[in-house]
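User: Sequence in, structure out. Go.
Assistant: Echoing your sequence, followed by the C-alpha cells.
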Amino acid sequence: MGVPTVAACQMAVADLDPAQNRRVIADRIAGLPDRVDLAVFPEYALTGFVADDRVYDAAVARDGPAVTAIGERAREAGVAVTVGLVEDGPEGYHNATVYVGADGETAVYRKRHLWAAESEWLTPGTESVVVDTPAGRAGLVTCYDLNFVDRSAELARPAVELLLVGGAWPAAHSENWRLLLRARALDGVRWVVGAGRTGRRRLADADPAQYAGRSLVARPDGGVHRELDRGERDLVTELDPALLADQRSLVGVFDEE
C-alpha cells in the first residue's frame, strides 16, 4: 500500500432532512480530488438529530435507499466513506456510523456513550467496530465516545492504525474536541481523523445550537497534522505509514505484544 489520502468532510447538517443531506454528501464525495481514498463525514451527517419523536421519522435503515445511494456515489468515485445517521434498526434507534468501502463492503458502529438527551430517544451500542479501509485498519468512534479512555484502550492495539471520528461538538467547547482527538491519537500511537459538524441548528420547536467544526487530523505523536476552522470545506491530507512506524518504534508500547 502506498501513502493513503483521507478527507475530513466538514459540513453543516439539515436536521430531520435526510434527502437534503444525502444530496450534499453525494455532491461532496463527487467533488473530492481523485487521490482521496477515504472520506469521513460528521456525526448525524445524513439525518441530523433533535431530542423529540420527530427524530424517528428522520431515521434511516442501514441498508435503505439513502445509505445505498451514498454507497453508489462512493463506488463511482472509488472512495470509502463513513457517514453518521440515526439508524432505524430491528433493535431500536441508534446513533450510528456506517462505513461503506469502495468495493461495497459495509459495517455499522453504534455510539456507545450517548450525550445528554440522546439517551432519552436512542439506544446505545455495545460493541467496538474495526474495519479495513484504504488508509489502514480503523476503529470507528463517535463524538462523546472520545471522553471515555476505556473505549480508546479497547482499540489500542497494533492492528488499529487509525481512528475515524464523526462529531457534532458544541462550538463553545471546541478546545475539548481538539484536545481529545489528539489524546486518542497519542494513547494508541495512531492517526486520528475527526470530521466535525459546523454551522447552526435552526429548527422549529428545538433549542438552537452552534457547532464547532474544527475538523482535525492528529498525528500518532498527538500533534496536529492539519485542521480546519468552521468553514464548510474538506480537509484533504496524506497519512504517511512511515511516520506511524517511526512513532511506534520510538514509543515502543506494542513491543511486548
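User: And one key feature?
Assistant: The first strand starts at residue 5 and ends at 9.
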